[in-house]
Amino acid sequence: MNSLPSNFEVNNSVPKNSALNLVNVTLEYPDGDGTLKALDGVSLKVRPGEFVSLIGPSGSGKSSLLAVAATLVRPSAGLVMIDGQDAGGLSDAGRTALRRDRIGIIFQQPNLLPSLTAVEQLVITQRLRGGGARAAAERAAGLLDLVGLGQAMAKRPHQLSGGQRQRVNIARALMGNPAVLLVDEPTAALDHHRSEAIVRLLRRVTDEFSVATVMVTHDTDFVPLTDAVAEMRDGRLSAPVTPAVAATRLG
């Protein structure tokens, strides 16, 4: 893969404070006559250029944490700060704008539009932000080259492998120059070799774009590629530890 062009826009100008800051976040849902606490006093800080793995059993609250961090769901209590902005103080339109401009989301399934080429998948997202067509096409081409798809820009999803589709997914999430990158089980449908390549790519873009990356994963084989590991259980989040410390706890 090629290195970034010298004029490529990244987040290196962002101060090294927390790009993502969750403070004592609680999320409750109605559950019969009572409530279900999906998140219970969760706090998490992730700085620009930091890559955090989020592990834990099914139903532990990992997806709820990502939804709150992505501003898709308002928490019942607590503070959600994105790139220095208090998401809780924004209107729905303001939260949508914050999510569009400062948060990149990589879903487990790429959900690419079948009729569009790889480069068009990226261009359309930037056009929705109001960007110019030429600038969007140039940025899309640069990102696809960065993720190793420089020779596949004109291919449609059915012509790409699962790993290649996930690379398009990653490039698309970077189109808006996000401060925060939220990744949900990016290797769930991939074999070990392709999974490792995808996590290594996430490591690289975290470093080069200086984004704060949180990756939910069930596969602990690749957490050594991240900076810290935090575990969710019953809606509570452990303090992040280094992968080496996490490995001793996981046995």
TrEMBL record:
Superkingdom in the source lineage: Bacteria
Keyword Cytoplasm assigned: no
InterPro entries the record matches: AAA+_ATPase, ABC_transporter-like_ATP-bd, ABC_transporter-like_CS, ABC_transpr_LolD-like, MacB-like_ATP-bd, P-loop_NTPase
Xref: SMART domains: AAA
The UniProt record lists the keyword Protease: no
Domain ABC transporter: 20-250
GO cellular component: plasma membrane
One Pfam family matching this protein: ABC_tran
Keyword line: ATP-binding, Nucleotide-binding, Transport
UniProt protein name: Putative ABC transport system ATP-binding protein
Organism: Arthrobacter oryzae
Organismal lineage: Bacteria, Bacillati, Actinomycetota, Actinomycetes, Micrococcales
